[in-house]
């Protein structure tokens, strides 16, 4: 499984390789909703955006991640970040995670199409057996969004991570398997085709 930087484009979103040049626009995007203030997430604060970009690019250099900047439509402004993480080349399988979006684009076709593009690339180009999603057990909005995609709950990793505020995160682990992908794809395409 060759995980290399790639641009994935749709009608509502474009996913481009993360770059230091995106720092200012991403710092502006994260202010929309003050996402870093949510205690159960690990979204970077505006002043920490450069360090977060460096961290993600370091993980990419180590072969552990493939980070993207999320643009509001092809050639649009940065409105968030997402990544392939927990890459297991032997499976192959990976997780779509470390995702955040500006409040103004949450629950819009942008997220649905971003996941559609990432899933298609993972299953159809990279040959993944399964794709995971993980979120804090308390993050109900994220859990509902993952379930709307068609992912199934595999279980809860209890006492999985320590968060920056000192609390312990229980992580809900969801997945979509390769045999499930055609039905999930059809559902995502149907959702994207519905009039808004």
Task: Give a verbal description of the structure.
It is built from 5 helices and 8 strands, in the order E-E-H-H-E-E-E-H-E-H-E-E-H. The protein is an alpha+beta fold. The chain has one domain (8-193): 3-Layer(aba) Sandwich (Aminopeptidase). It has an 8-stranded mixed sheet, sandwiched between helices. Helix 3 packs antiparallel against helix 5. The chain is globular, with a radius of gyration of 16 Å. The N and C termini lie far apart (37 Å). 36% of the residues are buried. The model has no long low-confidence stretch (mean pLDDT 94).
What is the alpha-carbon Rg in Å? 16 Å
User: What order do the SSEs take from the amino end to the carboxyl end, as H and E?
Assistant: EEHHEEEHEHEEH
Helix-strand category: alpha+beta
**Largest β-sheet summary:** 8 strands, mixed
State the share of residues found in helices, binned by percent. 25-40%
Q: Which short descriptors sum up this protein?
A:
8 strands; alpha+beta; 196 residues; 8-stranded mixed beta sheet; Aminopeptidase
How is the secondary structure organized here?
Elements: E1 8-9, E2 14-17, H1 23-31, H2 49-61, E3 66-71, E4 78-88, E5 93-101, H3 109-125, E6 130-136, H4 140-149, E7 152-162, E8 168-177, H5 181-193
Helix pairs in contact: 3-5
Organism: Roseicella frigidaeris
Domain N-acetyltransferase: 13-179
Pfam families: Acetyltransf_3
């Amino acid at each position: 499984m060759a995980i290399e930087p790639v641009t994935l484009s749709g009608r509502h979103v474009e996913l481009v390789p993360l770059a230091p040049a995106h720092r200012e626009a991403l710092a502006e995007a994260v202010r929309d909703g003050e996402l870093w203030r949510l205690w159960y997430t690990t979204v970077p604060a505006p002043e920490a955006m450069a360090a977060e970009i460096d961290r993600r690019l370091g993980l990419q250099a180590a072969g552990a991640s493939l980070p993207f900047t999320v643009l509001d439509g092809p050639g649009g402004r940065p409105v968030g970040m997402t990544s392939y993480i927990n890459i297991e080349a032997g499976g192959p399988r990976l997780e779509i995670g470390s995702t955040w979006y500006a409040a103004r684009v949450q629950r819009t076709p942008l997220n649905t199409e971003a996941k559609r593009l990432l899933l298609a690339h993972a299953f159809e180009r990279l040959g993944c057996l399964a794709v995971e999603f993980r979120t804090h057990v308390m993050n109900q909005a994220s859990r509902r969004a993952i379930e709307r995609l068609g992912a199934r709950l595999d279980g809860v990793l209890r006492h999985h991570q320590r968060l920056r505020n000192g609390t312990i995160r229980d992580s809900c682990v969801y997945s979509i398997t390769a045999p499930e992908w055609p039905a999930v794809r059809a559902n995502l395409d149907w959702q994207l085709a519905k009039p808004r």
